[in-house]
Amino acid sequence: MMRRAVAVLVVLACAAGVAAYQATRPGRAAANPHVFVPSPKFFLDFSPNFRTSIADVYYLDMIQYYGEHLRGGHLQSLPAMVDLVTTLSPHFKRAYIFGAFALTDVGRPDLSVKLLERGFAANPDDFAFPAYLGYFSYQYGTGSKQANDAAAARWYQRAASIPGSPPYLLRLAAVLAGKGGQQVKAIDMWGQVYAGGDKYARQKAVDGLDRILPTDKLARMKALTPLQSTLSPKDFEALIAELFKGYLQ
Amino acid sequence: MRQVRAIAINTFKETIRDRVLAVIVIFALVMIVGGLWLGSISLGEQGRMMKDFGLATVTGFGLIVAVFIAAGLVHKEVEKRTIFVIFSKPVSRSAFIAGKFLGLCGTMAVVLAGMGLFLFALVGILDGHVSGMVLLAVLMVYVQLLAIMAVTIFFSTLGSAILASVLGICVFIAGQLSQNVLSLTRLGKNPLTEALSWVIYTIVPNLSAVDVKAGVVGEQTLAWGQIGLWTVYLLAYVVVVLALAALVFRRKEF
């Protein structure tokens, strides 16, 4: 009886000790931002059937690493991690997109652009890559504001040309081309929006053209002349009627 | 033929009743469900994580089941002395090996079907639509494991069960790497190592020729012709290895 009571007491004391240690132990030590990231070549050579699994493991690791070190601003190993994941799994879209945005926190939007370009080369049918490239050119471009807008317009136009892309991309391209000083290109794009769009898109095209076209009647007509060959006569006449409403009175 | 069938049925019943097998399968199912947790920390890539880690789990646990059961099949009969009862009847040693292998094929089919259907259902729930590709990938894992089972049975006729298990796992790993090792050796331009690598490459089953798992997660477009050819190659490999096992077993004295 005595023995049993002692045994129970020992077990209870041990249980209390375990719980007390777990409840009061210090938090985890700060993780090292310099993580060893193997070369993608190593895994490409030695894991033919488990590449995607390894890419997924490193993708999860990359997310944890980003979350842990974002506040301290020490993300030195992030570029290598992004490179490893996307090299092992070249069609892993979310890894590219997450990586591109995360790399801007390292202060390397140039790497983001390179990463997205690599992603687009591996996934030429996915409009998301040129669309994000448009965003990065607009937001982080190293040229003048106008040059960045023009570069973004080019990417958005490319994204809009991919089947299945949303219609707003061409409108975005047209707006940015206008802002980027590429008036002729912008007029052409607005013409395309007008020709292929619904009522809402057509109104947007009219408004967009109205903003970039000269106010002088003759100059306006001259600027619109190229659309005559790209739009059907009916569409062209309807567009002219909309754009010259105030001029006819 | 009747003897092969009788041994196969008996082996199937014996192995499927094994409690260790049930524990391994339950553990594998828990691991597959663990993929759900991994998916939840993957920024919206739950379906991909589930498929990828689920198939890796099916492969890993399938390998453990295949190797450890295959390695003990012949030895159990010898240790329990039941082999003398079997060979006192008109059963050839080749029929014994073939029957044991076919029985284990049935067990593995049940084990992998269980894990595969479970994974298939989970992926269906997560993705909102069912994907037959998961089942195809599990089928390809099964074909790979058939080759490993045959090799392990061959090794079990040569040595102990533990040695056969270890060698079976080594052949699985070598089968994943053989093609790359050959290409790397060719870069060295040493005729001797190149010839040696080529011999190993030819002997070891080529398990990396087709990666259906990458196809399932959208990394590759599957070439059906290549998959078919690879399946036929592995089945032919199984026949050759079992014939060798029977040859070795015929000369064995108890």
Provide a descriptive summary of the structure in words.
The complex is a heterodimer of chains A (249) and B (254). Chain A is an all-alpha fold. Chain A has two domains: 30-123, no CATH class; 125-249, Serine Threonine Protein Phosphatase 5, Tetratricopeptide repeat. In chain A, 73% of the residues lie in helices and 0% in strands. Chain A has helices at residues 2-24, 40-46, 51-69, 78-88, 93-105, 109-122, 128-140, 145-160, 168-179, 183-196, 199-212, 217-224, 227-230, 233-243, 245-248. In chain A, helix 7 (128-140) packs antiparallel against helix 8 (145-160). Chain A starts with a helix and ends with a helix. Chain B has 254 residues and is mainly α. Chain B has one domain. Helix content of chain B is 83%, strand content 0%. Chain B has ten helices and no strands. In chain B, helix 2 (19-40) runs antiparallel to helix 3 and helix 6 (132-158) packs parallel to helix 10 (224-250). The radius of gyration of chain B is 20 Å and the shape is globular. The two termini of chain B are 24 Å apart. The chains are: A mainly alpha (249), B mainly alpha (254). At the A-B interface, helix 3 of A face helix 3 and helix 7 of B.
Descriptors:
heterodimer, A: 249 residues, mainly alpha, Serine Threonine Protein Phosphatase 5, Tetratricopeptide repeat, 15 helices, B: 254 residues, globular
Low-confidence stretches of chain B: none
Overall form of chain B: globular
Strand segment count of chain B: 0
Beta percentage of chain A is under 5%
Distance between the termini of chain B: 24 Å
Number of domains of chain A: 2
Sheet having the most strands of chain B:
none
Structural class of chain A: mainly alpha
What about the largest sheet of chain A?
none
Q: Number of helix segments of chain A? A: 15
N-to-C series of helices and strands of chain A:
HHHHHHHHHHHHHHH
How many domain units of chain B? 1
